[in-house]
């Protein structure tokens, strides 16, 4: 079974990341994202106290038939925990073959993080052709342009330091999807995000 998230991300130019929020606030912002047209929501579980927030958003997502992912998954135990909770996919800051292979065994789509050509090659060999480029704000839009040449079969989710002010730059540079966090809590950015979703949310982009 494929380990990448191609089907989930197809036609989804924006993904929301809800980090370091309590369960109530996480559900509030997830609902805001879904109302805006952002179907994909990730809740990182970098520490045990973040797990209740993931559980709450998964439950809310199930009511609206929205896929909710588990983020900052860096151990195989976190993979098992995410699968048991009903996460639709997992996201990692880096590339760990053990995590990738376990996700494959469990039928859980996985989005690993990369920042170098060597990591991209390694991820592709493991069956991951949609990758999280992290930290995107440090890599810069030119990185995405440069990677399109040697890796035409790979798609990237730009993550880290992305908001409405620079989202278009990364999408135009070749990112298939941009991941945003604090922008959801900023009313000044919501109109631009809505415009991005309306104009870029078309099938076949990943």
Write up what this structure looks like.
A 9-stranded parallel sheet has the order 5-4-3-2-1-9-8-7-6. It has helices at residues 6-9, 23-36, 51-64, 76-85, 97-106, 117-125, 136-139, 141-148, 167-173, 187-200; strands spanning 14-17, 40-44, 68-71, 89-91, 110-111, 113-114, 130-133, 155-158, 177-180. The protein is α/β, with parallel strands linked by helices and 206 residues long. Helix content is 46%, strand content 16%. The two termini are 18 Å apart. α5 links the parallel β4 (89-91) and β5 (110-111).
Features:
206 residues; 10 helices; disordered C terminus; lyase; (4S)-4-hydroxy-2-oxoglutarate aldolase activity; carbohydrate metabolism; 2-dehydro-3-deoxyphosphogluconate aldolase/(4S)-4-hydroxy-2-oxoglutarate aldolase; EC 4.1.3.42
Short description:
Pathway: Carbohydrate acid metabolism. This protein has 206 residues and is of the alpha/beta class. Helices cover 46% and strands 16% of the residues.
- Give the CA-CA distance, first to last residue: 18 Å
- Across the major sheet, the strand order is 5-4-3-2-1-9-8-7-6
* Count of β-strands: 9
Order of helices and strands: HEHEHEHEHEEHEHHEHEH
Helix tally equals 10
Can you tell me the overall shape? globular
Uncertain spans = 202-206
Helix content: 40-55%
Mean pLDDT: 93
Query: How much strand?
Result: 15-25%
For the biggest sheet, the summary is:
9 strands, parallel
Radius of gyration: 16 Å
The structure class reads: alpha/beta
């Amino acid at each position: 079974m494929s380990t990448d998230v191609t089907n989930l991300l197809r036609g989804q130019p924006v993904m929301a990341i809800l980090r370091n929020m309590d369960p109530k606030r996480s559900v509030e912002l997830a609902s805001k994202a879904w109302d805006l047209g952002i179907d994909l929501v990730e809740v990182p579980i970098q520490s045990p106290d973040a797990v209740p927030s993931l559980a709450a958003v998964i439950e809310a997502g199930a009511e609206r038939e929205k896929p909710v992912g588990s983020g900052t998954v860096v151990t195989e135990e976190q993979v098992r925990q995410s699968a048991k909770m009903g996460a639709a996919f997992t996201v990692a800051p880096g590339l760990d073959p053990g995590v990738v292979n376990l996700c494959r065994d469990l039928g859980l789509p996985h989005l690993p993080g990369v920042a170098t050509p060597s990591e991209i090659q390694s991820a592709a060999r493991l069956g991951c052709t949609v990758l999280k480029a992290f930290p995107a704000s440090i890599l810069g839009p030119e990185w995405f342009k440069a990677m399109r040449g040697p890796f035409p079969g790979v798609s990237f989710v730009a993550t880290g330091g992305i908001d409405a002010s620079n989202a278009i730059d990364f999408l135009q540079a070749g990112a298939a999807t941009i991941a945003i966090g604090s922008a959801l809590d900023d009313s000044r950015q919501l109109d631009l995000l809505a415009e991005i979703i309306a104009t870029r949310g078309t099938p076949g982009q990943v």
